[in-house]
Amino acid sequence: MKDIHQLNPGEIRAIIRRRKWDKPTAGLAMGYAQANLVILPQKYAFDFLLFCQRNPKPCPLLEVLEPGEFGTKFLSLDADMRTDIPLYNIYRKGKLGRAVKEIRSLWEKNFVSFLLGCSFSFEEALLRANIPIRHIEENKNVPMFITSISCKPAGIFHGPMVVTMRPIPSEQVTRTVQITSRYAFVHGAPIHIGDPTTIGIKDLRKPDFGDPVTIKKGETPVFWACGVTPQAVVTKARPDLCITHAPGHMFISDLLNEELAVL
Amino acid sequence: MKDIHQLNPGEIRAIIRRRKWDKPTAGLAMGYAQANLVILPQKYAFDFLLFCQRNPKPCPLLEVLEPGEFGTKFLSLDADMRTDIPLYNIYRKGKLGRAVKEIRSLWEKNFVSFLLGCSFSFEEALLRANIPIRHIEENKNVPMFITSISCKPAGIFHGPMVVTMRPIPSEQVTRTVQITSRYAFVHGAPIHIGDPTTIGIKDLRKPDFGDPVTIKKGETPVFWACGVTPQAVVTKARPDLCITHAPGHMFISDLLNEELAVL
User: Which CATH number fits domain A128-229: 3.40.525.10, 3.30.2040.10, 3.10.310.40, 3.40.190.10?
Assistant: First the structure.
């Protein structure tokens, strides 16, 4: 088998579809947008779509499929939501069960699939501008924090916003805002810069998810809305069933990050 | 009564609510965002919300209310969708009936209200940069055209995109793209620049809606997705009932256009 890092999105999805890859997708198909997945029965679909519309920073919608459809039309013309994610999480009444490699046997014709942007897209853009990404340097998961910022509720869905934190050298914070602002569909501009306590974060060394990273002298913590927010919110709303990607195990699309940039 | 042009959004809405103003809202509450309104029974709401998600340029969602709610929470904390629009259009099975000044007697608790951005917001920004707006100079309605561009269908909703056209001096077209790109929530950047025939427009002197305007030597026609698109689409989908603002008779919000700008 060729090194998976050399393959294009369609080739990687074919490997995932054959259940030959169940690891995280970071670093695969560089340049191409990856997406978070949320699948809900149709009775919850309006509420969740409304939740995303009201909370575009944590829930930037890239594509929503018609009820029952499992093939994307925008992110790829050759993808299957039932098989093309390396690992799926199954939540029943908000409780996380086993992770599975495909969901064909679980598929119901009332399922609605939501694909949301992923910050991998803007991290690439930052690296291209020589802005350091600490968790990549330290080979860790990005640190994530539950904040005191409430998402705007919609129907049954409500909860706090989850954010990622990246320490940025103070003299590069302006450039960081400028670059990430181009990527509104993948969590976009920071939602907070500086003092973590004003958004309810007590200790940057103790993230709620992911790993702590080093903050060096002269660096400012910069916070972005995080794609874990919808999973946290779905867990809280306790729908009968919700299927998501397992964190880090994203859908790899055929769209370039640059095709999603707003300016 | 004070000149309505001197009043703030809340004062103008109070006048509209008392049915003392049923004229277009262009030029009122300068600086504040105005919005298109679409009200549909809940059974169509997911399909229409999905249509807007898939077609953000003609249907830029500013706010969607919960089923039955008539008070906005984002665009204003003191507004009533049943009374605060100068003139409403009523469509039954896609057929336009009488226009009315308020819809309190028609209100049903399954109604879902969608508020969409309006190009008034970016016209102000263009004027501030000394970019001429011909239909304002000539005191006409903006010319609108049905194009050969298909909207992405969603559920029962489908149809062609409607665009507005503004002739721009060629040397100011780049600046026009830059300025309007800031206003993604109010139809944003142009969808087409130059040759009208490539988007199916045969004669710029014969708009499908609105008035023809003068195109001077050295000017390029620039086209933006238009808020009439959802009305055209709703008409085509023929839902049992749909209530919209009458064209030009917009909802006046408490948000400044600058608060909606993306960069």
Answer: 3.30.2040.10
